[in-house]
Amino acid sequence: MKINKKTQLQSEINKTDFLKENRLIFVVPAIKTQEETVGSPSESDFDENIRKLAEDIMEAHGGPIDLAKRTAEAELRLAESEREKLKLAMIAKTAQEKAELAEQMAHTDKLTGLANRTAYMHKIQNDINRFERTGEPVSLIMIDIDHFKSYNDKYGHKTGDEVLHLVAQILKDKLPRKTDMVARYGGEEFFVALPNTDRVGAALVAEKLRVAIEEGTKGRTFPSVTISLGYATLDQDNKDLKIAEKLEIAADTALYHSKNKGRNRTTQYKKGLEMPSQLEKLAKKLFYLQHEIEQLRDDLSKETKIVELVEKSDDKDLIMYMNKKIADLEKEISKLEQEIRNVEDAVKTERARAVA
Length: 356
Hints:
This protein is α+β, with helices and mostly antiparallel strands. It has 4 domains: 5-65, no CATH class; 75-106; 111-275, 2-Layer Sandwich (Alpha-Beta Plaits), CATH 3.30.70.270; 277-356. The protein is built from 11 helices and 5 strands; from the N terminus they run H-H-H-H-H-E-H-H-E-E-H-E-H-E-H-H. The protein has helices spanning 5-21, 23-37, 43-61, 67-106, 117-134, 148-155, 157-174, 199-216, 244-260, 278-310, 316-355, and strands spanning 138-145, 181-186, 189-195, 227-234, 266-268. The radius of gyration is 34 Å and the shape is globular. It starts with a helix and ends with a helix. The model is unreliable at 5-13 and 18-41 (pLDDT under 50).
């Protein structure tokens, strides 16, 4: 049978019109068919898949069937699917962001934005573990802001906090490598962990930081700030410092000598250096603990006010997150209160021993 070319052309036009009018019905299956075979479809392959699907449907049903209804159903299914995907994505993103924020806050000092004592302890232990594997030296610098108590007494705690924040920022900006860490250990005391750094390198970094603080704090509403530094290096000659606490005590001993010699200087730890008295160490620890608990109580007060606002919302995840945060703060405060009582008892015992 001879096919009239005009009839064939009209058939193709009708088929094209059908595809244009009802393209949405075939979008999802066409994409799925293509992705299951060769991946994401090109525009030509996409159109070809749609054409084939259209022909199959027309052949099975003798032509278009209730196209308006099918189009509406397809649009509804597609919209509901996309809305559900979007909702799930938003929930997942929000939960992830909350978890990341909680993790970040747990390892960050709230006043200065530096790593806190918890983050520092993880860092220094990892550096010590690396020394045991590779023999790379590890240096630790301990820093104390000179006469910090006078800033608080003379200019107020607000200015004291400003000093802490400024010193923290300068220390962070002046560290030469991303692998180095500066952390606020407590009160006006900072630790700088320097992996793969020998004694000469530690001395250079310490002096660079000392000068940067003295120069960078000039021209403020308070007098120029200075710092005292002490550092210790874990290397093949000082293997006994491979316990984090011993490395800290060594750096603290060097710092003690910097302060006793007039402050605003750096001292390297060497075997035989005189250790600070037990009473001095306990008094300093007590000061740090009291300062830390004051901050936590202030945080608890602020977070409690936030919880009162959050509880009026319908965000159950946020309410649960905030309540957990409050519980964690209360637990940390309780732990510090007990630690303070223990240190106070130790101070009394040490004073009684000194008098006897």
